[in-house]
Amino acid sequence: MHEQRPYRFHRTYPISADLKEFGYTIQDDRSIDLDRNDKRIIDLLKIYEPSIITCIACGSCTATCSTGHFTDFNIRRVHTFLRRGETHLLKEEILKCMFCGKCQLVCPRGVNLRNLVLSINRVIEQIG
Amino acid sequence: MINFNLFVLPFFLGLLYMVFSIVRTWYRWINTLPSIDKVKLSMVIRRPRQILATLYEVFMEGLIHRRMWKQNPLLGYMHMSFALGWFLLIILGNLESRIYSGTHLNAPYYPIFLKFFIHDKLVIFFEIYTVPGFFRFIMDFLLLFILSGLILAFIKRKKSKWFGMHRTTEQPFTDKIALTCLWLIFPLRLLAESYTAGYYRGGGGFLTQSFGNLLSTITPIASGVVAYTFWWAYSLTLGLFFIMLPYSRYMHIPTEILLIFFRHCGIQPKKWFSGFSEIEVQSCSRCGVCLDVCQLNTAGITDSQAVYFIRAMREQFVKEEITQKCMVCGRCQDVCPVGIHTDSLRLIKRRELNTSHLSDFSYIRDGKPGSCDIVYFAGCMSQLTPSIPRSMTGILEKSGISFLFLDKERSICCGRPLMLAGKDKQTHDLMEFNKTLIRQSRAKLLVTSCPICYRIFCEEYNLPIRIQHHSQFLLDLIKTGKIPLQGIFRKVSYHDPCDLGRGSGIYEAPRELLGKVADLVKVEHEYNDALCCGGSLGIFTASQQQRDMMTKEALQVLLKNEPDVLATACPLCKKTFTKHSPVRVMDIAELIHASIPAAINAI
What we know:
heterodimer, A: mainly alpha, 0% strand, globular, B: mainly alpha, Rossmann fold, 4-stranded parallel sheet, 28 helices, 8 strands, 57% helix
């Protein structure tokens, strides 16, 4: 199993030292403000590669991913980032793709994944 | 000067302009060639034999249109009548005018309008000793030859199917003007010469004289004036055609000569846009032969075929969309009568338009692969068709050959998918990882199951070792008797994968291999005419539905003879076909594995 990736986008609260001494921890805040997040990427992607809306997040793409054999790269998570508008995480993640296209071949919904990855790169550049 | 009339000016000025602009562009192209190509060019100029070979090729392709004849005889005749007919008309016209005038130097317009200046009934001094009326006959004959081609060109506009073409190119405005001029030139010449011959009652050949006599009886009054008007019209259309030539598709006429010459010098297309690419772009005659073979038509994409893409390149207005709507299957490149490298032009443009060069492959950790003489690289796609690597390992183990399975657990992509997207830097990053792995394995022979990998290994990796596709490797094993075979001899039709066939030129090894274990059935589109399975990694914008259409089209062709098994040599093709095929799809390796006696029971 891979290590759980720390969710860096959450705000962290300093845990006061005295509470820690008693064995208490405070979990990171996992709330994401969807109203505030950047939806431009997903909106543009719906134009460039409309097939993205048919995704059912089954994870077949992730299961077959060549990059996924080396690291915890996860197209399904990329999709989640897209939906949530977590642009800064998306930018780092998408650079890992080797573009081999296996994900597209196994996709049961016929999502055009290679064009999706290309388009993500393009959109990220467009909006800076 | 006696041999001058004002009407020669439009022709003369047009000719001057055309010659000037052709010389200027030729100079610019040669100047923008990479220095290594310039060296190649200067080497060849010193070898007269090579120049002769080039001239022969120019004659066969530029005038006879050999490849057009192969495409369709009617199409070939049409092109030959224009090219060869006009060429001979110019050469013989010049000869004739020199004999008539008795000087070696004529004004350039003189041979073109000779019949206007000379219309005597006397037998010329020269012709007394040879065949009387020789030139008059031959010039009329050539005119008739061209006019026959013109009639065919007219018919082709309406019935292009007769010429083996289902689709024809849509022409832009400049081309239409140039085309109209070209079509008007020869009828106008016929009318001008005939009217003159009719007016003077002599001086014409079998065609122009009889036609002229007929004309002058129909319109007896002022046929001299009519003739003069036609001479003006003839000169104007010629002049306009010459002026339009550098801006229309007819620029391919002078450019193709240069292209053939460059090709004979051994100049190859580069990975970036060079003078040679410019010449290739300008050599496209927009004949539209590439339109019919393109499978994207099946998917309803009809605006991105090679001819339209090259037109966009010539107009220097290439959108990213048009570069991406191509499967890079190589079918258009294969049929192109000019031999333009349409695929590499497309990739050049993709490279140019690609703006993102960032990648992060730091996660690929260097592992020690171990070492062996024979290294097997299944390729990413084979992970989706596990039966292929399983059969390969099975065969290798049965034949007792020690080998190293390089990407057994996880595979680094060969880089070709990224290369097809124009992402050069990323490709090189991945290539470095694989090169290191292969180097560390100390392999002497690299066997791969994937034609996509095979092609990039051969073309880009510069590996100092032998590289084989598994079809070649297995054939070698069988020939050396390392695998005992017991063919089941089912009816099998073979699908040529694009990257293995047209891409790497391997047609015979898979067939020979199949011939040993099965009955190979003939298919309508095979060898270099094979269809793409539709799973191509070269296209990005085609939707799954469009891909399915192409797959079904290919399957229809392949399964026409009702084979028991559809064989292929590419994991991507296998994966794509399996989705739709009612017949079992098997890789060559699987078929061989199934034919090994000891393994028969296991399967």
